[in-house]
């Protein structure tokens, strides 16, 4: 209050600040999945993002059609809200085009590549998006079953703040600053680093999925629509 008063701020400013940052120092913070502001702010402030997804491509790498199909196919969000969520996800991706963008590494389990959404063109576009970003992608092979039993996880590191691990379900989003939780996240990524394909191998694996789609499209017995 003394600081805000010295800066000429009134009680309304203080109350708004307190509401906005009341959970800033909680070791564990849970919020509803519809709240998109916190995750966008976390990504924009991070200097490094390391993520693992099992069944879907990470939101920062999704094409617009892929993101929309995820919401539509999930049949959980109200249809009138889907476009709002899709556009919010696309806006989050602007950090990937910043000159000072965070250092990123995305571990994608092969199960996510095998999960077909929409038509063949949608999946080809998504595979190509990943293929053009293989410098920040590592594919975890399907035969690494132990990785498939892990929860999706993201580790954020910041220039002047403690790291945070993040996970989410359809029911909520969890941010953890607790040192034990962060250490568990780091151990997960150490394990993934040991079993994931390297950059060149990941590129080859993604190219296989693109080729597989194109071969299927020439099979008259296959309905890709």
UniProtKB/TrEMBL annotation:
Domain DUF5753: 36-207
Pfam families: DUF5753 (PF19054)
Protein name: DUF5753 domain-containing protein
């Amino acid at each position: 209050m003394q600081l805000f008063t010295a800066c000429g701020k009134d009680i309304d400013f203080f109350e708004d600040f307190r509401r906005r940052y009341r959970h800033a120092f909680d070791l564990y913070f849970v919020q509803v999945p519809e709240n998109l502001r916190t995750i966008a702010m976390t990504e924009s402030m991070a200097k490094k993002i390391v993520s693992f997804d099992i069944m879907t491509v990470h939101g920062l790498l999704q094409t617009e059609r892929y993101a929309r199909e995820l919401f539509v196919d999930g049949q959980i969000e109200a249809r009138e809200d889907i476009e709002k969520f899709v556009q919010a996800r696309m806006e989050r991706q602007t950090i990937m085009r910043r000159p000072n963008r965070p250092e990123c590494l995305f571990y994608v389990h092969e199960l996510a590549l095998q999960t077909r959404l929409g038509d063949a063109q949608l999946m080809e576009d998504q595979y190509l998006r990943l293929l053009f970003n293989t410098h920040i992608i590592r594919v975890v092979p399907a035969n690494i079953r132990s990785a498939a039993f892990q929860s999706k996880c993201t580790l954020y590191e910041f220039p002047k703040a403690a790291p945070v691990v993040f996970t989410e379900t359809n029911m909520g989003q969890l941010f953890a600053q607790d040192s034990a939780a962060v250490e568990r996240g780091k151990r997960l990524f150490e394990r993934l680093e040991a079993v994931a394909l390297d950059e060149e191998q990941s590129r080859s694996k993604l190219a296989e999925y693109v080729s597989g789609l194109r071969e299927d499209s020439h099979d008259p017995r296959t309905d890709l629509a």
